[in-house]
Amino acid sequence: MEALTVLHWSRLSDLVGRKPVVLTGLFGLSLSMYAFGLSRTYWAAVVRFVSQKICLQAVSNVKSAAEAWTGLSTAISESLRV
């Protein structure tokens, strides 16, 4: 699922910025989780589960960006201690 949606989220992030994309992803994720809990049929649960995975891809960009900045700041601080 990630391979299908990550390019779309990254293009949208380049177009409008990271913050609106992350907020949209969080809102969509929370809405789809709520709807998943209210599902009464199997297929409704499957559709809502897929929508959770699509929205989760927008939020996963935050994790990778935080890891990149943390690694960068750690490398800079270690080089300054020499």
Quick one: how many beta strands? 0
Q: What is the rounded Rg?
A: 17 Å
Average pLDDT number: 77
Q: Report how far apart the termini are.
A: 45 Å
Helical segment count: 3
Q: Give the amount of beta strand, in percent.
A: under 5%
Number of domains: 1
The biggest beta sheet reads: none
Order of helices and strands: HHH
Low-confidence stretches: none
Can you walk through the features of this model?
The chain has one domain (2-80). The longest helix is centred in the C-terminal third of the chain and has 39 residues, at 42-80. The mean pLDDT is 77. It contains three helices and no strands. It has 82 residues and is mainly α. The chain has helices at residues 2-16, 18-37, 42-80.
Please describe the structure with a list of short key phrases separated by commas or semicolons.
0% strand; mainly alpha; 82 residues
